[in-house]
């Protein structure tokens, strides 16, 4: 029996100490009619057989060169990141309720909060949420709680925010009576026109949600959007890509007074793509809203001897204290992923993060140049982009992508399902990992498929 | 000392700098940063040493007995971690075509099927990213069910007062009001109170069984009948499934929806507080509402094929809860664990988890400790109340917890459930040996002896941890959540538990707060 250490002798002694004849007797309180028949599960494997089984499965999925983005990106993860995050002391600990025995996790979370706050240019950050999409949902709930001046719980959501994220937001906030209004993008530029905000009256909007770069990869006019939203009395929620912040202006300095709540998908910071998770969501905000921030928060303090130490704090917001009046039902965060992210950000440092961001952007420029050299392929939008770009495709994308995959290229995702008016179009991305040879191969295959 | 204090301007990890080959940059200046973000600037060795040393300031299952009740801190098989990070799994983009996902999707389908069998449910979705999100999905499905039937007056969720805080918080997030049901003296739900509470406003009941009191809810079938007769549905919180997996199935107990915590029952790591995963299962009535994506299997010429089910095919779904699929890497670890234990192994997990809990309870009771429900059988966990010790010596559950750290044990859950005064909720799990349980009993006895002879020593614990009792009031009153500068002069050097000298809780002041 795997993972149970008891010998026959242990069993006998333990049953005697309890004063029962058999293990079965320990279950005597369970009514007989509730007992299940033996379960029908696959026969057990030992570790070697399991390794073979999963090794075969993993082998079937390998082999695509990844130009796919749409919210998760194929970045290089330094070896030390998972060497450290995989240490048993981090991997097998739990939520640090006993602070004195959890200083490792707590200090990492504090350092993580600090790095996120510094990167986004806001004053405080939490210790992570489940992922970028659910973090955006929590941000919307938080903004409605925090904006007491708004007359109605109405939130404007740019349609350039990831369609999946918008759906998750809708699912998470629907029961709370929040009205979500979608703002369309300007069709040639691919961003939200700030003038659209002039159509709303002051006090009628609790929050505006924008993404930078947006789902199409392009950069929004964030300064004007923030200023006009603030003029309406709305809070600004910014969803950002953390790698891009190596070179892009942090949301805390957008416009005259900066975004109020910043969140995003943390995956690019050291989390493997792993078919969608585990990733983590990050969230930062202005100091005045800290008591509305959901999730775990770590604070620095001192012990009885004056030594620096770290504790979970502001717990009066949380479900284990407030129960039905908590800011969220969230219990765990994504602790281990924040360890990975903290090591990642530390290893890269400000120079490394900027270099990675610049390499992504430079590779994306090369990719777009190469692909738009194919007749009929052209950029959909004119605004500058970071590392992802929307392209018109002369062939149906639903056929193109499997065809490319058979030839070893993960080309991106189609846009027509979520944006029917865009027609056959491809969202494609390049990270620092993509080489000139891979970009050239993608270009040659696309040309072949298009018929040139 | 935090990483920022080890930073030197201009220092970098040369091997981690991306090469910008073309050097091209076409982002206009108004979008670009004017100054670099304040991130650490250290060498790779400094980074590795810093975080390795931090890891050594943690208790964990890999290093310590961790009897944290309600959390099931069992051994997390290393092989599951190794295999989940195989390049074919870890490198796969979630939006990669299904042609390059047959491996992982086949495993996830297998996990769905295994969880259906274990929970006795008609369908399972793996997508919730934590237990609390699984709860949310379950209650959202119950809401959709009533709403589609036009039964819109059902705006109340019933929750026993012993429940985890996530239960009422979840119900509130789903737009329900919460009504608490009392527990009777034997630790069961008060049936008379339940019967009086149900009615046309009842949307459902959330129940953990075994309960957070460490006992099996014996009249669960009656509870199900009462709630169903009133038109409500039953939600099973799978937090304590480890005690009964393989023996009793939530579906057979009458539940309509269930979540399981794979980071508890199925041995995936807790990671310092996540990532977990909280798959949900449902009976026939709630099947159309399961969250997506889910994996479907199709037979085709030459074999089987797996694909994701989407909104289009499941129009009544409560929808998506995450940006992609959920915590696939965690689910793969659970799959690996379940394939290693199989059906007979799972039964023995419940057997030995229960054996360990009952043995530890009997030994502590034999040593003179008061247990909360002495006439009941413990399940996989049980409650000790140190109220007699608190009254006699002034040593509380908190003091026992802190002093246990000095003995090299992580503390049990304390002051939960709130119904039992001065309580410690103790869950040893099946992976601990008899010797470790005996050592825990010896530590509890030693602390009680010390409480008689030297109570201040217990009350000022811990003494052997990297820091002493922390000033939580200061942390909450003057929140310091982001590094802006040093707080004390600090103490360098690694700390290895149990090897350093004991330092007094009233140790000398090394520096003043900044």
Radius of gyration of chain B: 26 Å
Instruction: Tell the overall outline of chain A.
Output: globular
Flag low-confidence runs of chain A. Answer: none
The CATH architecture of the largest domain in chain A is 3-Layer(aba) Sandwich
Shape verdict of chain B:
globular
Number of helices of chain A: 12
Query: Structural class, from helix and strand content of chain A?
Result: alpha/beta
Distance between the termini of chain B: 14 Å
What's the layout of helices and strands?
The complex is a heterodimer of chains A (452) and B (514).
Chain A: H1 8-18, H2 47-61, E1 65-66, H3 79-85, H4 88-91, H5 103-120, E2 124-125, H6 132-146, E3 154-158, H7 163-173, E4 179-183, E5 207-212, H8 222-231, E6 235-240, E7 261-265, E8 281-285, E9 298-302, E10 308-312, H9 319-322, H10 335-371, E11 378-379, E12 388-392, H11 397-406, E13 409-410, E14 413-414, E15 425-429, H12 436-450
Parallel strand pairs in A: 1-13, 3-4, 3-5, 5-6, 6-7
Antiparallel strand pairs in A: 2-8, 7-8, 9-10, 11-12, 12-15, 14-15
Helix pairs in contact in A: 3-10, 5-10, 6-7, 10-12
Chain B: H1 44-55, H2 78-84, H3 87-90, H4 102-119, E1 123-125, H5 131-148, E2 156-160, H6 166-173, E3 177-181, H7 191-197, E4 202-208, H8 220-229, E5 233-238, H9 250-253, E6 257-260, E7 280-282, E8 294-300, E9 303-309, H10 328-366, E10 370-371, E11 382-385, H11 387-393, H12 397-406, E12 413-414, E13 423-426, H13 434-453, H14 455-459, H15 472-477
